[in-house]
Amino acid sequence: MKREVRDxxxxxxxRLLNRARETKEEFDRILVHYGIERLLYRLSxxxxxxxxxxxxxxxxxxxxxxxxxxxxxxxLLGFGSGDPEELTRIFRAxxxxxxxxxxxxxxxDSVHAGYIxxxxxxxxxxxxxxxxxxRARVPLQIDVGIxxxxxxxxxxxxxxTMLDDFPAPKLRAYPVYTVAAEKxxxxxxxxxxxxxxxxxxxxxxxxxxxxxxxxxxxxxIKGTFERRAAALPSDIPIAFSAEFSDDAIKQRQxxxxxxxxxxxxxxxxxxxxxxxxxxxRFGHLMPHP
Length: 289
Hints:
Mean pLDDT: 91
Order of helices and strands: HHEHEHEEEEEEHHHHHH
Radius of gyration: 20 Å
Number of strands: 8
Shape: globular
Number of helices: 10
């Protein structure tokens, strides 16, 4: 049995390497994406599955959005305890969930958790752990937010698999409306201090690629601002102004983001175009005092 598991892991690693060559993606990004997918499957099979919702950029695959950016992190909303020790215990148990072999193993002893402190006013816990695919090390980072509102409510999803041989994770997830609302709140709150260029890119993609219901989106924005006790904008927020998009530092941060993420046809997308598009699409839905 151990020989079969080793052979399977080697086969999975080889197939993922072939995929990286075909798509011209970095192999370590492919490994991380596969690792997140299989960790989600274990989560979906665990006793604690109902305590988490999938959120963040991993959902772009579910929504079949073109021009999506690659991501190395898994974002979850957690219900219940936001204690790092408790989340360490939960994820160690998830690592040990018995599943049909899929070429990857997760080391429960590698699980560590701590509070997130950068650029956040509403808390969260960061969990780190390590997987292994035929001796290829797969480090994963999971950010768990606690207690946010979800409007119009969680959705049941089946996460697409990279390799057809293995079962898909079936779990609950954020609707796109809440994802957009949280990104808008973060952008407004951080203002000129914002270095999270990924939020601008994601909202631009939403504006360009998705058809969203305005009333549902407005409700999600209102609920998110209220839950996070965020200041309500009385005028155009600085992040959507020329002061922000013309700032030399912000332009360097934006250019570095595009280069790092290898966004192909969008590699020359101007920051000013992005901020104008976001405000034009979502600005009239922002709550006003």
